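Q: Is it fine to ask for two folds in a single conversation?
A: Yes, each is treated on its own. Send the first.
Q: Here.
A: Result:
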Amino acid sequence: MLSLSSLAQTEPAYSKGQFYFNWGWNQAQYMDSDIQFRGNGYNFTLEDVVATDRPTHIKPDVYFNPETITIPQTNIRFGYFVNDHWSVSLGYDHMKYVVRQYQTVQIEGSINTGSPFDGTYDDDYIDLTTGFLKYEHTDGLNYVFVGVDYWQRLWAARNTNVNAWNIQVYGTLGFDAGVYIPKSNVILMGNEQSDRFHLAGFGLSGNASININFWKYFYMAVQLKSGYINLPDVKTTLDDSDYASQEIVFLQENFVLGFSTHF
């Protein structure tokens, strides 16, 4: 029979001066968003545009292959405990954002480019066909951020006969702030495709998670994250004077695997 100690008798899994690293995967949901397009001969807004993420099907040869490991929607974080409850971190979320093709949305503004879409629009309706617009951040709606997290132990168990096995459960609350560097895949009204990395804006997010620590050094966590994204400068063509702007609210679910230690 295993002899389990009480919570008070178990040492903290994380302590001041400890580092941690985790890698995981995410899926996300996005609220409908207005997208404004500006450029030579046009200035119009598409209202309440529906978009989704694009998770990669779970296949070991994709998720754990060094050559394809960055294709799925991934999360990376490296952190440091400033005391037994607070940590600071640097993180990267590789998200994906895809405007649903062939949806019908309202359009406000004007187009005068010599294209079939020329006209003045006053809350008219338009179909997002591939000839009019393809709009994706599929090579990454990339979020690079710094974070602050509070850790609270919720439960712990330890085998007192074999002083090596223990499990501890932590709850965390955190706040992140950073920049978005998407690689946007956009084709607008027949222009040549724009598909390049660009600093497009900033984001703020909050998160809550449950962490299960094994043998003090390893852990896994499930996390719920919500945030706000402001993108005032999304490149839409190869002409830098053409750009789109939008604000996005998202909800994200993450699963991560991690390692912590003192160096």
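Q: Second one now.
A: Result:
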Amino acid sequence: MSRTKEFQELRPLLFSIAYRILGSASEAEDAVQETWLRFEAAPTELRSVKAFLSATVTRISIDVLRSARVRREEYVGPWLPEPLLADPYQDPERSAELADSLSMAALVLLERLSPLERAVFVLREVFDFGFPEVASAVGRSEAACRQLAVRARRHMAAGRPRFQAGRKEREELASRFFDALREGDVVGLQNLLAADVSMVGDGGGKAPQLAKAVIGAQNVARLLASAFPQMALIGVTGEPHEVNGQPGAIFRDRDGKVLHTLALDILDGQIQTIRTVINPDKLGHVGPVADAWAINREVRQALRPTQ
């Protein structure tokens, strides 16, 4: 098998590792490309191509994450991962676990870990690498990696919800949510939201965004029921679509350009969190990006009373 073919077969795994470590599709793609360059320049004989490539993309991702964390500390407003519409890596036997590790909620939790903890958790808990492989990938002893894994699991477990909805339940609830959203049905929306639901937007200072998280079923329902019908007046449409393995939607302007994505966290029969990403820098991989500022002005103009 040629080196190129070996790499292409493992590319989905490499991207999936990098994305979970970095929370950025564009940075994950860059890490995978750099991995290819190092693989291309590596000695002809490798004991295990998978081990070499996995270790290489992990080390590159750790380095990128260390520098990215400084930028994220200075980020304008809440930071959310770049939305991913489909994970290229599919393992039918572990699809449920993989989908969970891809969710916005899981990636936000991973942000609390150190780069090494995050890498160890992704390799060990998500992709089931053995500790010898994990140790080789991150450049630490097996004993140290076991300690890192324990700390990472403890942090992740503390932040996870106690009850999670099944796939069918999530899809049915999401369908009702988007029906109520299109109709501007405040009561219908409120009935689907947890009492302490939060709605968080990520504009990064580069697009209109919520000044802070909106908390409470009544507040979120009123905001949604007013905002989305207003945008519909100028041709903005919502296309239900899985986002990071969870129910969500892509919103587009009248020309089909991406305005923002929306992802729902559903547990115990209610929507717990709504996360929207409108930062144009995080949407380019989804498709051509709309001018959110122009749309905001157009909405205001459409709502202005006529003289």
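Q: Anything structural to flag on that second result?
A: Two points. The mean pLDDT is 91. The first strand starts at residue 193 and ends at 202.
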